[in-house]
Amino acid sequence: MSVTVICGGVGAARLLVGIRRVMSDDQITAIANVGDDFRIHGLYISPDLDTITYTTAGAVSQERGWGLEGETWQAMEMVGRYGGVDWFGLGDRDLGTHLYRTHRLTQGASLSSVTAEIIRAWGLNYTLLPVTNDQLQTFVTTQDEGEISFQEYFVRRQHSVEVSKVRFVGAASATPAPGVLESIEAADRIVIAPSNPVVSIDPVLSVPSVSEALAARRQSVTAVSPIVGGKALKGPADRLMSELGRDASVVGVAEWYRHMVSTLVIDEVDAHHRQSIEALGVDVIVMPTVMSSPQITDRLARVVCGLA
Amino acid sequence: MSVTVICGGVGAARLLVGIRRVMSDDQITAIANVGDDFRIHGLYISPDLDTITYTTAGAVSQERGWGLEGETWQAMEMVGRYGGVDWFGLGDRDLGTHLYRTHRLTQGASLSSVTAEIIRAWGLNYTLLPVTNDQLQTFVTTQDEGEISFQEYFVRRQHSVEVSKVRFVGAASATPAPGVLESIEAADRIVIAPSNPVVSIDPVLSVPSVSEALAARRQSVTAVSPIVGGKALKGPADRLMSELGRDASVVGVAEWYRHMVSTLVIDEVDAHHRQSIEALGVDVIVMPTVMSSPQITDRLARVVCGLA
Questions:
Q1: Best residue in A92, A120, A122 for a mutation probing chain B (most B CBs within 10 Å)
Q2: How do the pLDDT tens digits run along chain B, 308 residues long?
Q3: A-chain residues within 8 Å CB-CB of B83?
Q4: DSSP notation for B93-140
Q5: Is B100 on the interface with A (CB under 8 A)?
Q6: Do B102 and A74 touch (CB under 8 A)?
Q7: Which chain B residue shows the shortest CA-CA distance from A42?
Q8: Is A123 on the interface with B (CB under 8 A)?
């Protein structure tokens, strides 16, 4: 029994915590979005890889949902003293991860090798793969600033501006990282985590062959809706879907994924959408999906892994 | 009345503290070695510029003589957890300086512009110039490892290996930073600080036109010997001089600098070398040079600035 999980950041990381409680690490492969990756202060930052690592290691800040518990901010205070760019918060402990990753990449190591080294150092034995080792960066077009990088939109602008277009720069010439296609082809179950379809899952799907590989396994692919009652649990998924002319609802999520997903897990508050989703040819599982307790998380994990 | 000081790191920084007490900031220009600069973890590090900045700002760690007081080491602990390169200690506060500098350099700012921004942020109003904005890096040849960078020699190997050759890579095509030649030409007094002649002052002199500019001002140039009683006060200056076939003494220092220095300040313990130095055509001032108290430091500062 094996499972491959297509991941964004926080929502995916929380589901992975549950999956790791109901399956063993050697059965689990997580494929992560790298469209959020960027360089700042000379450092290479991989926000989703780090959120997944820190969360599954039990080291993530519970308060913030990203970065590390027990963090200090001495470096950023100094950057602030110089009047430097401090809108992207880098904790001192977190900086150690960025220093290590940047150093290894500079030495010529691939992002997947470095990712494996990092999760091993955290005592994690599942497989975490960036979707690609090539450059792939999400940009969004806004009315007032034109096209800006995802982090400028998400962090600096606090995703408070309207987006008219999303673009994954580099995607067309990117190659899936070693193991990505193989794990999609070989897994007993494939899960699309409750992450932002527009800016977390779509960059993964934009890498050539990945969406085709998923479509070929459609009967084994289950997605968890990140939209509950018409709202994103976290972040701008609902607004982005509306701004791009989609329905910000579980039905919109089903439309988004229907070509590669045979089952959509939706929350009980959305039960009334069941028929609209089934009309799209997508099966529906209705259950609590807001991972507010370990019990709910584990039950969701069991269902998506086909253990329920 | 104006003074220009040719600087390495710790010894120069301490003398500058004294000079700033006996002169005003608008009279002082410090020209710093950048041969120790290097990149690690993707960050651009300027050890001598930082030591000078932190020391003159009164923020340097008194215990270590480099880096900042009140420092924490969370980032490096994390790098260590990953098995990363941790022989070059980067404190969390100090990292803020490297993040800021690297970011500005990436934006296309020159090292001298960034240096000015950094010292202003520390409330310092003297002029601190890197000798060049171009790449210039000191390498040493060792028996067991061949040619290694200065920081690998100085920090990783704790300068415990014999050196057969010193090379300043990039020097031949480097240009003095704006203000460097002008401040040497215009200063009333020029001081060569008590820094390592081989690996701190020589990289400065290796930039084309700098040693010629100093030689043209020889009558106004005073050096303070970094060798006291045949020993370097700090670091490997004495061993390096011996290893390169020079006399590790105040006489050796006078020989090293004679073409561009008219006066050498030596410590009282070296008074018996006076005649040998004068025989080289270099005047001698004998006085306490070990800056172990503010009084000694200020008296030394007054003498080298021609105020005594």
A1: A92
A2: 999 999 999 999 999 999 999 999 999 999 999 999 999 999 999 999 999 999 999 999 999 888 999 999 999 999 999 999 989 999 999 999 999 999 999 999 999 999 999 999 999 999 999 999 999 999 999 988 999 999 999 998 999 999 999 999 999 999 999 999 999 999 999 999 999 999 999 999 999 999 999 999 999 999 999 999 999 988 999 999 999 999 999 999 999 999 999 999 999 999 999 999 999 999 999 999 999 999 999 999 999 999 98
A3: 117, 121
A4: HHHHHHHHHHHHHHTT--HHHHHHHHHHHTT--SEEEESBSS--EEEE
A5: yes
A6: no
A7: B42
A8: no
Q: Rounded to two decimals, what is the model's pTM?
A: 0.93
Q: Phi/psi at A196 (nearest 5 deg)? A: -60, 115
CATH, domain A3-142+170-304, list 3.40.50.10680, 3.40.50.300, 3.30.450.40, 3.40.228.10:
3.40.50.10680
**Distance (Å) from the alpha carbon of B306 to chain A's nearest alpha carbon:** 35
The answer to whether B59 touches B122, Cβ cutoff 8 Å, is yes
Q: Does A135 touch chain B (CB under 8 A)?
A: no
Chain A positions in Cβ-Cβ contact with residue B74 (cut-off 8 Å):
71-72, 74, 91-93, 95-96
Is the Cβ pair B40, A84 closer than 8 Å?
Answer: no
Residue type, B258: R
Question: In this structure, what token pair is assigned to residue B268?
Answer: 């009282």
Q: Say whether residue A89 is in contact with chain B using an 8 A CB cutoff.
A: no
- Quickly tell me which residue has 């009683």 as its tokens: B229
Q: Which residues of B touch A104 (CB under 8 A)?
A: 84
Q: What is the CATH number of domain B3-35+125-142+170-304?
A: 3.40.50.10680
Alpha helices in A170-266 (DSSP H): 180-186, 202-205, 210-216, 237-243, 250-257
